[in-house]
Amino acid sequence: MGEWAFLGSLLDAVQLQSPLVGRLWLVVMLIFRILVLATVGGAVFEDEQEEFVCNTLQPGCRQTCYDRAFPVSHYRFWLFHILLLSAPPVLFVIYSMHQASKGPGGAAAEAGPPCARGRPEGPCAPCALRARRARRCYLLSVVLRLLAELAFLVGQTLLYGFRVAPHFACAGPPCPHTVDCFVSRPTEKTVFVIFYFAVGLLSALLSVAELGHLLWKGRLRQAAERDNRCNKAHEEAQKLLPPPPPPPPALPSRRPGPDPYAPPAYAHRAPAGDSEGGSGRSKESLATVRQDLAI
Q1: What percent of the chain has pLDDT over 70?
Q2: Using an 8 Å Cβ cutoff, are 205 and 153 in contact?
Q3: Rounded Cα distance, 51 and 37, in Å
Q4: How many other C-beta atoms can be found within 10 angstroms of the C-beta atom of residue 106?
Q5: Where are the alpha helices (DSSP H) in the chain?
Q6: Helix axes 74-101, 186-240, angle to 10 degrees
Q7: Most confident of 127-131, 175-179, 197-201, 242-246
Q8: Cα separation of 66 and 63, whole Å?
Q9: Phi, psi of 71 (to 5 degrees)
Q10: DSSP alpha helices (H): ranges in 160-185?
Q11: Measuring CA to CA, which residue among 154, 145, 172, 162 is closest to residue 68?
Q12: Please, are residues 228 and 121 in contact by the beta-carbon 8 Å criterion?
């Protein structure tokens, strides 16, 4: 179990970059594959060659019939499956550790430019480039993992199918005639084969969901980065434009002078409130003028 614990510790480091779907895939990988195969699979398939019995004593006939019945042992096939599925995440962990050693806290921090993650304008260019490369590397590991999963599902279906037959008829050299061979615990092995195929199908579906989630998040991130670049370009263009000219000074206000063509003041109409008083005075002056004329 020591090698399984080491492989599990490497796979645990993947969840630092994994979304929730990736962590579910890791749980399925660690529990339903590594743990079940290490505890149950070995006991079921370790004696399959010794318990493969044929009704003949011809030397080499039983071994030849076993090779024809099972070209690859179930247990070794699934071990190779787990190792191949674990290779992309392990390579991603190695790449992440290498990039972390080149970061601000690594040995190459003095040679590289400082990375200020707490700046108000955002992370510096090396940090953003490093994060983008890490996301692309993780996306590539998910794609490779999905391809390996599908390839092994097809291979298991072609090699073993979904049932371990209790009887196998073998004909051909070195067997002198058609030989009947019998498999030990066929029902238990059939259940294990179906269970492992169902776990592989679930793992493939989780990988597809994680791949779609990563692509969707990447598209949203690209749209946000594009908007930020447009905003920054607009702000820089506004800074490069010349300042607007100042408004012209306001002219001093001058009171309008008297109009030379205006009629004299006495020609203006008297106000409405003094019309009755003015008419009375004009009558009195008219009467006074008539008296003077009479005298």
Answers
A1: 58
A2: no
A3: 20
A4: 14
A5: 2-12, 20-27, 36, 42-45, 61-69, 74-101, 125-159, 186-240, 275-294
A6: 20
A7: 197-201
A8: 5
A9: -60, -35
A10: none
A11: 172
A12: no
Kindly report whether the global pTM for this prediction surpasses the value 0.70: no
Q: Is residue 84 pLDDT above 60, yes or no? A: yes
Distance CA 63, CA 215 (A): 50
Q: How far apart are the first and last CA of the chain?
A: 154
- 3-state class of 167 per DSSP? strand
Cis peptide preceding 174, ω within 30 of 0 = yes
pLDDT at 293: 66
> Of 215, 157, 207, 213, which is closest to residue 28 (Cα–Cα)?
207
The β-bridge relationship of strands 53-54 and 179-182 is antiparallel
Phi, psi of 192, deg, nearest 5: -65, -40
For residue 248, the 8-state DSSP code is P
Rounded Cα gap, residues 45 and 164, in angstroms: 12
pLDDT of 135 reads 79
